[in-house]
Amino acid sequence: MKKIDRRKALKNLATGLGGASLLSTPLSGLATTTDPKGKTIPANAYGNKDIEEPVTAITLGAGARGNVYGNYGVQFPKELDIIGVAEPIAIRNERYAKKHAIPDENRFTTWEQVFERPKFADAIIITTPDDLHYGPCMKALEMGYDVLLEKPIAPTEEECRNILALAKKTGRIVAVCHVLRYAPYFIKLREMIQSGIIGELVSIQHLEPIQHIHMSHSYVRGNWHNSQKTTPIILAKSCHDLDILRWMVGKPCKRISAFGNLTWFKAANAPEGSTNRCTDGCAVEASCPYSALKIYHRDRSYTYVFDFPEDETKHGDFILEQLKTTNYGRCVYKMENDQPDHYVTSMEFEDDITVNFSMEAFTSYHGRRTRIMGSHGDITGDMNEFVHTDFLSGKVTKWDSTVDDVSNYKNSGHGGGDWALATDWIRAVKKQDASLLTSTIDASIESHIMGFMAEKSRKTKQTVPISLT
């Protein structure tokens, strides 16, 4: 096994910083504690100045994620022109079409209708529900479109492999929205690991705190509450994390073990006096942390899922109506949910590198936490900052990795990763060069297989080998 020359790694990094000391100098714009208010803009700052004609695209699914990528076109119209939309919810279809000045003939109710016409754009943006990724992606590739595909790739391993095979056969570009690869925080962590500054990578511990209200919103009441109808939570929520861990390690995963279950959000834990809906006179509504009336109506949290009327004075009544008619108003203990609310995954990578990943619903906070252990140093981080400790010198350095909330960045989530991905995808499509992306279908397939094998391990209570063939 080739060993890392740590002294050479430090020298190379210092050279890249103009000969300055790595441990006292910002990494590519990352601010040290000497400038606590400093922020960073991703190295691949949004926007492609050399693009003369925009990529034309059709969006399939005009919900939250469809608007994230669509908004990039609003901010950078010379790079991305949304010329079509397929969306079954009329108000979403209408608002998306208005925002992008989409002509009526390019507005569709279902994704199938888009492909009844000859190819009329450069690319397809697929932000449909998880179980509706496979069909439109396969059809788009057959018809010669390049694709931006929201994660997960597809609900089954077979379908993921089929998309990969067709992408290779057609030569089209498929970028998977593993946006954490484009977040400055993870970019810099990977650079530090791969540089050898911490010596040999030995182990990683990574935590994804979902936050208890977020869990109840998305995976108990929300669209992903039933794994059979969508995808298992390890893919629906955490394929980002499996992907970023594989990317940072830089070596294949050999075997995986997983544990977890649905412990709290089930009928056996329903308090006495609870009703099927929080609006039905529930006796414990005022003392329940998962009260839909509190979350959506009184606190006005997570209301992005509702298609509000234009008149803001009617929003309160509108929310109450949604709570009386949709799953968002139902008791969290009386849903048809089956997603685990805690999930622990242990992985062994090549060269005996071990990784532990924990997805936890019952936290009061968001924001991934990462601990990286090497033979000559360690790194701890929380997506806002990370701290590097050098074992030889004892020097401790803190790096600020937050992103400025300036106009070009305000619509990009995941630590700045959403729009950084869009920037690279547009460049890759224009140049017809998939190597300009880090989250191609080829790269993303491995972490999906890790997710499927984790779920197999959880259900069979066995350690499962990872095979990419």
UniProtKB/TrEMBL annotation:
Residues 190-465 form the Gfo/Idh/MocA-like oxidoreductase C-terminal domain. The lineage of its organism: Bacteria, Pseudomonadati, Bacteroidota, Flavobacteriia, Flavobacteriales. This is Gfo/Idh/MocA family protein. PANTHER family: BILIVERDIN REDUCTASE A (PTHR43377), BINDING ROSSMANN FOLD OXIDOREDUCTASE, PUTATIVE (AFU_ORTHOLOGUE AFUA_4G00560)-RELATED (PTHR43377:SF2). InterPro entries: Gfo/Idh/MocA-like_OxRdtase_C, Gfo/Idh/MocA-like_OxRdtase_N, Gfo/Idh/MocA_Oxidoreductases, NAD(P)-bd_dom_sf, TAT_signal. Pfam families: GFO_IDH_MocA (PF01408), GFO_IDH_MocA_C (PF02894). Residues 60-177 form the Gfo/Idh/MocA-like oxidoreductase N-terminal domain. SUPFAM superfamilies: Glyceraldehyde-3-phosphate dehydrogenase-like, C-terminal domain, NAD(P)-binding Rossmann-fold domains.
